[in-house]
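Dear H.,

Thanks for agreeing to be a second pair of eyes. The structure we're designing against is below in token form, covering all 118 positions.
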């Protein structure tokens, strides 16, 4: 499927919300909550059996949220947080799913890109 935006459907204001997302053929439960102390949206990823795989990921502009983690149960591609307006500002309480989007690059595209760099 390649590179695509993960369509987020946040609630109002800082309300936590959950979303089931299929990535590279596997279903994941993404749990989003506003971390007022951190001033950032936080993400927890659960598998399709609701087992927490990772929690507390701050959704800040970056190239690959999952890169630091070596867990084959996590999505195998890359999840990136992108400020589509290019303001350089991380997602505020009302920005997730609007100005700030999550994008996913599937495993086949990641492997293809790595092969061209080798």
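And this is the sequence the design step returned. I haven't edited it by hand at all.
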């Amino acid at each position: 499927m390649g590179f695509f935006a993960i369509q987020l459907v946040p609630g109002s204001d800082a309300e936590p919300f959950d979303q089931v997302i299929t990535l590279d053929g596997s279903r994941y439960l993404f749990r989003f909550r506003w971390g007022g102390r951190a001033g950032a949206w936080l993400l927890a990823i659960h598998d399709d059996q609701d087992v927490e795989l990772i929690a507390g990921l701050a959704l800040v502009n970056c190239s690959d949220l999952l890169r630091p983690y070596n867990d084959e149960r996590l999505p195998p591609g890359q999840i990136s947080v992108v400020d589509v307006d290019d303001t350089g500002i991380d997602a505020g309480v009302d920005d997730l799913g609007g100005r700030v989007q999550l994008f996913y690059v599937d495993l086949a595209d990641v492997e293809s890109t790595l092969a061209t760099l080798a």
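Two observations from my side: The first strand starts at residue 3 and ends at 6. The radius of gyration is 14 Å.

Warmly,
E.
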